[in-house]
Amino acid sequence: MNVPAFSDLNPPTRILLGPGPGMTHPRVVRVLTAPTLGHLDPELLKIYSEEQELLRYVFQTKNEWTFALSGTGTSGMESALTNLIEPGDLVLACVHGYFGARLAEIAERLGATVDRIEKPLGQIFSVDEIEAALKKKKYKLMTIVHAETSTGAEQLHIKEIAAAAHKNGVLIVLDTVTSLGGIPVKIDEWDIDMAYSASQKNLGAPSGLAPITVGPRAREIIEKRAKPVSSFYLDLKQYANYWGGAHGYHHTASASLHFGLREGLRVIAEEGLDHTFARLRSNAEMLWNGLEDMDIPPFIPMEYRLPPLTTAKVPAGCDPHEVRARLLDEYNIEIAAGFGALKDQVWRIGLMGYSSRKENITLFLAALKELLK
């Protein structure tokens, strides 16, 4: 059999301004070329330890069970629910976008009885709405998305929502995929039971790892389960044994991806969280002002608009998908369409991690203005 000839791999250099992945930080690109290490190499285990401390820093937590799963953000989402839910458990899913609905679907697949409370796309929940729902049944846990990637909305008052959950004896699982490293996430202060994220957005690394942190209530439930977690690969007890002092074999993790995540986290730590958040907010405001000047207002009110992800209203008479295609073809700029009902109504513009730079915003605004003439 003849082996076909393939050309050298030479992907285009894109300016990634979509909902993820963001652009990989140059320091991360450099460490990705480092020699591969075995998954139990003492040097890699040392890197794991440093990575855990950096993850605790960005999550703002002291949780011992804080590490990165081998998989995308959805693996973090599924692991959080798989480890806590057993068939027949009652779950309250707060849905204000696509990823809130995905949490509900995963919980249903695990055999939970799921009640959904929903807000129209672009809106968020009040504490009173969630508290009223929590009182209706004896739920085991509730799920909510901190930064909804499908709409660009930040769910406010997470601390008060978590307090309402705990007052009713309910655990809270928080999706921080688009918020971690981009806006404040305060796991300990907010008293969150479990949260997960992804490496490819605000953390400036490639996709393939899912940071997760487990609080004491959730950990106790996991450790006392009578029946083993249905997923071997996503079993957090086994992950903890792999990452902890025993370093028991669980799976063959990618050393290269962990090199990259550690370096992305180092970049944030060196700048400092407060400085990082302030810079990302300033860049987002530059984008928002530029869009307003072109009569393309952001979809989400300023009160709960996400700096890492902006949904911009498509102007009347404009084909949003043609504009996106031309941005990619003519300027190497990637943005995304909306989800579901918003598919033809908004563009999703991400300023995540290394993508959030003034030169990218200036180029994007100029290119969009030219295409809309």
Protein architecture, described:
- By secondary structure, the protein is of the alpha/beta class.
- It has two domains: 106 residues, Aspartate Aminotransferase, domain 1 (Alpha-Beta Complex); 244 residues, 3-Layer(aba) Sandwich (Aspartate Aminotransferase, domain 2), CATH 3.40.640.10.
- It is 40% helix and 15% strand.
- It contains 13 helices and 14 strands.
- It has a seven-stranded mixed sheet with strand order 2-10-9-8-5-3-4, with helices on both faces.
- β8, α7 and β9 form a beta-alpha-beta unit.
- α5 runs parallel beside α6, α11 packs parallel to α13 and α12 packs across α13.
- The radius of gyration is 21 Å and the shape is globular.
- The mean pLDDT is 96.
Topology of this structure?
Blueprint: E1 15-16, H1 26-32, H2 42-59, E2 66-70, H3 73-84, E3 90-95, H4 98-109, E4 113-118, H5 127-134, E5 141-145, E6 147-148, E7 153-154, H6 158-167, E8 171-175, H7 187-190, E9 194-196, E10 209-214, H8 216-223, H9 236-243, H10 255-271, H11 273-293, E11 309-313, H12 320-331, E12 333-334, E13 336-337, E14 346-350, H13 358-371
Parallel strand pairs: 1-12, 3-4, 3-5, 5-8, 8-9
Antiparallel strand pairs: 2-10, 6-7, 9-10, 11-14, 13-14
Helix pairs in contact: 1-10, 2-10, 5-6, 11-13, 12-13
